[in-house]
Design goal:
Layout (H helix, E strand, L loop, with lengths): L2 E5 L4 H12 L3 E6 L6 H11 L3 E5 L8 H6 L7 E4 L7 H6 L1 H29 L3 E5 L12 H21 L5 E5 L3 E2 L14 E2 L1 H14 L3 E2 L4 H11 L2 H4 L5
Parallel strand pairs: 1-2, 1-4, 2-3, 4-5, 5-6, 6-9, 7-8
Helix pairs in contact: 1-2, 1-7, 5-6
This protein binds NADP nicotinamide-adenine-dinucleotide phosphate.
């Protein structure tokens, strides 16, 4: 990998990824809505690691701009990591379509839109790695977050299909299903320490998975077993739980 594109580069997970990739002398294209936040990051990584860092404006919700956004990247990336996401306000989304649509777009529709463009390019070049940060929330719908969860479920299924399509073109797709990550997304929510990953842990797991061509990772291994149990609960019991 010479150049990696990070979509949603202002996220704390993305910043940890940028740091660790730059430390491996990998050039970066950092794409985000608030590009001004990335200028100090660019300066810091360039000075510390001597890599080339390009900062580009990108809004996952502006689907009409995605083909143009990608067309203007020069050089094209060897790998793309789709990090952006939005938890949103679940209770508000029950009664406010705009909030609901923002959740669905940031976690599913916008991701599909940009990854379609990237997948077609990688397929024609017969090389590349695509990483999608999904979530364990996509494994079973719960009353407290089924808008976010269903969007992540769709994203996980999309990545699975993309992996199945692109394997014959030597393009690898990694699905990342973290549990809790200590970032601003879950600020104010109490989570068990042992089940909460640091952004740096997520970043190093993602990079290892890209190199080892892993298909699906959970970051903290305990989540694989927790989700196995959750998936096994019969629906007639599950529907009565307050989750
Ligand atoms: N934190 C957790 O517990 C947890 C658990 C499982 C999975 N995840 C997933 O991990 C990924 C990283 O999240 P995080 O925890 O690092 O959260 P975060 O710090 O809140 O980052 C979310 C990022 O998504 C960006 N974003 C949202 N809507 C966007 C849009 N329309 N276009 C472009 N960028 C957009 C935000 O940009 P702005 O800075 O412009 O707002 C922000 O940089 C997300 O996909 C999230 O769903 C998180």
């Amino acid at each position: 990998m010479k150049t990696v594109l990070i979509l949603g580069a202002t996220s704390e997970v993305a910043l940890a990824l940028a740091d660790q990739l730059a430390a491996k002398s990998i050039n970066l294209i950092l794409a985000a809505r608030q590009v001004e936040k990335l200028n100090p990051v660019k300066a810091d990584l360039t000075i510390r690691f001597g890599v080339t860092v390009t900062v580009v404006a990108f809004d996952a919700a502006n689907m009409n701009s995605h083909a143009d956004f990608y067309q203007h990247l020069d050089p094209k990336p060897d790998a793309a990591i789709c990090v952006f996401g939005f938890l949103g306000d679940h209770d508000k989304a029950k009664v406010n379509w705009d909030e609901c649509a923002t959740i669905l777009t940031a976690n599913y529709v916008g991701a599909v839109s940009i990854l379609n463009v990237i997948a077609n390019d990688f397929e024609s070049r017969k090389a590349g790695v695509i990483v999608g940060i999904s979530s364990v929330a996509g494994e079973r719908g719960r009353q407290s977050n089924y808008f976010y969860g269903s969007a992540k479920a769709g994203f996980t299924a999309y990545l699975s299909g993309l992996r199945n399509r692109l394997v014959k073109s030597a393009v690898h797709v990694v699905t990342v299903k973290p549990g809790f990550i200590r970032t601003k997304m879950i600020e104010g929510i109490a989570t068990p320490g042992l089940l909460t990953a640091k952004p740096e842990q997520v970043a190093s797991s993602v990079i290892k998975a890209m190199v080892a061509k892993r298909n699906v990772i959970y970051v903290l291994p305990a989540w694989r077993w927790i989700m196995l149990v959750i998936r096994c609960i019969p629906e007639f019991i599950f529907k009565k739980l307050r989750l």
